[in-house]
Amino acid sequence: MNDKAPVSAPVEQRTIEHVPVDERHGRARDLFTVWFGSNIMLLTIITGALATTVFGLPLWAGACAIILGNVIGGVVMALHAAQGPQMGVPQMLQTRAQFGSYGSLLVVVLVVFMYLGFFASNAVLGGQALAKVTGLPTNWSITIIGLISVVATIVGYRLIHRVTAFLSVVAGGALVVAFIWMVGVNGVPGGTWHTSGYSWAGFMATLSVAALWQIAYAPYVSDYTRYMPKDTGQRAAFWGTYAGCVLGSVLPMLLGVLVGAALPSDETLEGLSTLTRGVSTGVFAIFAIGITATNAMNLYCGALSTITVGQNLFPRWRPGAGSRAVTAIVLFVIAIIPALVSADDFLANYANFLALLLCVLIPWTAVNLVDYYLLRHGVYDIDSLFERDGGRYGKFNWIAIACYFIGIAVQIPFLSTTLFTGFTAKALGSVDISWIVGLAVICPLYYVLMRPKVAALAAQPAVA
């Protein structure tokens, strides 16, 4: 586990093993660029456009819901990022400490599907943008976008950081140009600024989508802080990630809100192209490149999570760069199929995907944060995380597993999606507050049930 890996190697050699203190590098400001640059892309714009297209909000209400949702969800997300410098392991590996070595598999597998869902969604949008710029068939463009992401995943952590730092400048500049061109050069239709159509259901749905955008990063933000020096500190890691991810998400989402308010009956990409005519080719090309970087991050963390499952089943296995490469290629093949199939009805599928994803992520994030910050205060036995029987943490932690399923169950009555609306959500006028209920129930429940067990474990010798 502690074998030396060359820090300067062009291809990252480590996968899920603990990163020794003498191999740590980077600064908290690097976390800002990795999340700011990776969020400025077409999928973020599409997500913002849901406010004024799918949920029918006026521009002012959509903008308020987007900002508030990101600010709230970003707190949950960044609390996970702050764990990386302290632990030095990927987030999903650390989940073994809460759920047990085998109990964690359910959550890890669900997270892999989440990565694949975002990969497919990004690939569709990136492919459509590339096809618009180059004239290539959409399916070929989707495949090309995916293959570029695979290459970046194989090279690993350092390349991803460098590309996202570059995108922070280039994609950020393209975003500013898009705003200026839409409002100041081409202008937007007069009806863009209307104030009618507000509903609490639409506002809460938009707020939930924005919060989920942040919370969906929770299972892997610490994957990008685990190489940070331990003395980086939790506060610096928190604020570097929070500022980059929230600001990098809010700005393109607001662009999407504006596009949807201006041309609500158009497809968002068509609307963006119309409103930025004159510079649309350059804007689309840059945002398409941005998607390859973000998809590389999805695939990278999906590969780490998949390797976590494999190492759990085969504890003698010591995966390296080759294992990550093979895993990334397999995941790419699995993800690209739905991307090619669902390209035509992408928007409806994406909105439902987000709502259901939030339901299964909330209980996990509640358990993880309460366990790390309130019960164990960041002190874990790292060696036990790599033992098949879970070491100090066992194979199954039935308290965490029970809380996870209870967390899903209590949210169901409050869910409001096009696929399913719970009876409580109907009584509230289709307002979805399921994720708030999930956090409010599971955080205190897990704390009360788990506190005696943690106290008993704390009496045993531990390796921090």
Automatic annotation (TrEMBL):
Gene3D superfamilies: Hydantoin permease. GO terms for cellular component: plasma membrane. Keywords: Membrane, Transmembrane, Transmembrane helix, Transport. Coiled coil: none annotated. It is a multi-pass membrane protein. InterPro entries: Pur-cyt_permease (IPR001248), Pur-cyt_permease_Fcy2/21/22 (IPR026030). The chain crosses the membrane at residues 31-51, 57-79, 99-120, 140-160, 165-185, 197-218, 239-263, 283-309, 321-341, 353-375, 396-415, 427-449. It is found in: Membrane. GO terms for molecular function: transmembrane transporter activity. Belongs to the purine-cytosine permease (2.A.39) family. This is Cytosine permease. It comes from Mycobacterium dioxanotrophicus. The lineage of its organism: Bacteria, Bacillati, Actinomycetota, Actinomycetes, Mycobacteriales.
